[in-house]
Write a structure and sequence with these properties.
Layout: E1 6-7, E2 17-19, H1 43-46, H2 52-59, E3 64-66, H3 69-75, E4 83-85, H4 87-93, E5 98-103, H5 114-126, E6 131-136, H6 140-152, E7 155-161, H7 162-167, H8 169-177, E8 181-185, H9 191-199, H10 207-219, E9 224-226, H11 233-238, H12 241-253, E10 259-263, H13 268-284, E11 292-298, H14 303-306, E12 308-313, E13 322-327, H15 349-356, E14 361-365, H16 367-381, H17 389-406, E15 411-416, H18 424-431, H19 442-450
Parallel strand pairs: 5-15, 6-7, 6-9, 7-8, 10-11, 10-15, 11-14
Antiparallel strand pairs: 1-4, 2-3, 4-5, 12-13
The structure holds pyridoxal-5'-phosphate.
Pyridoxal-5'-phosphate is lined by residues 111, 113, 140-141, 230, 263-270, 341-342, 386, 388-389, 417-418.
Length: 457
C-alpha cells in the first residue's frame, strides 16, 4: 500500500494549549443556575467542589488556555496518540470513502479520560488538596482518576455504580492497583446512599446517584474535592488536545475530513475531536470548509435525539447546580445495556448548545448493531473497541456505506475513544446471541421529563 496507515506526531508537536470553543460561539450558552435562588452560580458557589483554577477554566472565554508543563510531561507517556487510516475497513466495506480514526485507547487507562484526569488531579494537588472523590459507571473514569491521583500523591475514592461494581471486578482491581479506594454505590457512607438503601437494599445504583454520593463527601470535607469525568466545560476543553493533534495529522496525510463522528455519553470525547474543527469553521465565517459533525448515542439512553433542552440537575439527589442541556430527566434510569459510559441522563451544555444552533447532527443506534460494527472493525483493523466507541464505529460505517451508495469518495474521521479489553464479557454475551436491543420505558421517560425543575424563562 502506497499511502501510510499511521500518522504519528513527534512529541515536540504535542499541543501547548487547550482550545476553548466559548471564544468562538455566535451566542453564549445559558449559565448554570443555583437551584435555590435560580440565579447564575458564581465561582464561590463551586469552590467547595473544585479548585479555583478549574472554576476559572469553567467560565473562561479565552480562546487558548495553556497546558501546564508538568501535565504535558505526563501526557508524553502516551501522547500524541496515533491517527490511523482504516485501509482494511474501507476494503471490507468496498467503499470509495477514506476512513480515518484517532485512537485514544493507547492511554494507560485505555480511553480518552486520562486527558482530563491528569490536569484535574494536578490542579487539585497544586491547590493543596489531599483527597478526591468521584463516581464511575463502567469504570473507565474511576481508573483514569486513580491513575492520575497516583501520579500526584492524592487519595482517590471512587463510588462505582453497584451493578458495574459487581459485574466488572477487573476495573475495580485496576483502580485498586493505582491505589484508589472503590466503594459500591449506593453505599452507607453518605446520606444520599443511605436514603436509597433504606428503601431498597439491593438497589443496582445509577450514575446520577453515584455523583450525589461523591459530591456530598466533597461538600462536607474541607480537604476533599470532587472531580467529574465529562459534561463540564473545562472537561470538554481538556479533551480538545485530541482534535488539535488530529488537525496536524491530517496536514501530514494531506487530507481534510468531510464528516467527523464521535460517540456521546456526557459529550467529552466528541467535543475533544470536533471542537477544534468547529472552531475553525466558526472563525472562517463560511469561507472555510463546512464539515458535517455527527454525534452518535445509544438508542436506549438518547439524550440528544429524544431529550428535552431544559434546565435540569446533574445528579439524582439534586445537589448540583441546574444546567441547561438535552436531558431525559434526572430520575430517568436507562435499561441495562453494555455501554456503561453512555448511560447518563443529560448531555454536556456546550454540546447541547451546538445542537440547538444546528452546528452538529445527532443519531441513535441500538446496541446489537453497534456490537456488529465493533466486531467488523476488530476483524479488519485488529483493535477491539470499547462498547461506547462501537457507537462511533457504527456511525462511521453508516457514512462509508452512504458514500458507496452515492459513489462519493468523502473523507470520514471518527474518534475511537477506547479499547474494550475490560469489556470482553459484553462481547461474549454478543457472540452467544444473548444481547438484545433494549427499549426505554416511554412512560418512565414522560414521568422523568414531567419532573423537570421549573425555571422561569
Ligand atoms: C466514558 C467513555 C465514553 C463516554 O463519555 P464522553 O464524555 O461522552 O466521551 C465514551 N467512550 C469511552 C471509551 C469512555 O470510557
Amino acid at each position: 500500500m502506497s499511502t501510510p496507515t499511521k500518522f504519528v506526531l513527534d512529541e515536540s508537536k504535542m499541543p501547548r494549549h487547550w482550545y476553548n470553543i466559548a471564544a468562538d460561539l455566535p451566542t453564549p450558552p445559558a449559565p448554570p443556575l443555583h437551584p435555590g435562588t435560580l440565579q447564575p452560580v458564581g465561582p464561590d458557589d463551586l469552590a467547595p467542589l473544585f479548585p479555583m483554577e478549574l472554576i476559572l477554566q469553567e467560565v473562561s472565554s479565552e480562546r487558548e488556555v495553556p497546558i501546564p508543563e508538568p501535565v504535558r510531561e505526563v501526557f508524553r507517556l502516551w501522547r500524541p496518540s496515533p491517527l490511523y487510516r482504516a485501509h482494511r475497513l474501507e476494503k471490507a466495506l468496498g467503499t470509495p470513502a477514506k476512513i480515518y480514526y484517532k485512537y485514544e485507547g493507547v492511554s494507560p487507562a485505555g480511553s480518552h479520560k486520562p486527558n482530563t484526569a491528569v490536569p484535574q488531579a494536578w490542579y487539585n494537588a497544586q491547590a493543596g488538596i489531599r483527597k478526591l472523590t468521584t463516581e464511575t459507571g463502567a469504570g473507565q473514569w474511576g481508573s483514569s482518576l486513580a491513575f492520575a491521583g497516583a501520579l500526584f500523591g492524592l487519595d482517590v475514592t471512587v463510588y462505582q455504580v453497584r451493578i458495574s461494581y459487581d459485574q466488572k471486578p477487573y476495573r475495580r482491581a485496576l483502580m485498586e492497583t493505582y491505589g484508589a479506594r472503590c466503594l459500591p454505590s449506593p453505599s452507607d457512607t453518605t446520606n444520599s446512599g443511605r436514603a436509597v438503601l433504606a428503601k431498597d437494599p439491593n438497589h443496582p445504583g445509577s450514575l446520577g446517584l453515584a455523583i450525589s454520593e461523591a459530591v456530598e463527601i466533597a461538600a462536607t470535607h474541607d480537604d476533599t474535592k470532587y472531580a467529574l469525568g465529562s459534561v463540564l466545560n473545562h472537561v470538554l476543553m481538556h479533551q480538545t488536545i485530541i482534535g488539535q493533534e488530529a488537525m496536524l495529522q491530517f496536514e501530514m496525510a494531506g487530507d481534510d475530513p468531510d464528516v467527523i463522528i464521535g460517540c456521546t455519553g456526557g459529550g467529552s470525547n466528541f467535543a475533544g475531536i470536533t471542537f477544534p474543527f468547529i472552531g475553525q469553521q466558526l472563525r472562517g465565517k463560511g469561507k472555510t470548509k463546512q464539515r458535517r459533525i455527527v454525534a452518535v448515542e445509544p438508542a436506549a439512553c438518547p439524550s440528544l435525539t429524544r431529550g428535552k433542552f431544559a434546565y435540569d440537575f446533574g445528579d439524582t439527589s439534586h445537589l448540583t447546580p441546574l444546567v441547561k442541556m438535552h436531558t431525559l430527566g434526572s430520575t430517568f434510569t436507562p435499561p441495562g445495556f453494555h455501554a456503561g459510559g453512555l448511560r447518563y441522563h443529560g448531555m454536556a451544555p456546550l454540546v447541547s448548545h451546538l445542537a440547538e444552533l444546528d452546528l452538529i447532527e445527532a443519531t441513535a443506534y441500538q446496541q446489537t448493531e453497534c456490537f456488529a460494527a465493533g466486531v467488523l472493525f476488530a476483524r479488519a483493523e485488529g483493535i477491539v473497541p470499547a462498547p461506547e466507541a462501537n457507537h462511533a464505529v457504527k456511525g462511521a460505517i453508516v457514512e462509508a456505506l452512504r458514500c458507496k451508495a452515492e459513489g462519493k469518495s468523502q473523507v470520514i474521521l471518527f474518534n475511537l475513544s477506547g479499547h474494550g479489553h475490560f469489556d470482553m464479557a459484553s462481547y461474549m454475551a454478543y457472540s452467544a446471541g444473548k444481547l438484545t436491543d433494549q427499549a426505554y420505558d416511554e412512560r418512565e421517560l414522560a414521568m422523568a421529563l414531567a419532573g423537570l425543575p421549573s425555571v422561569p424563562a
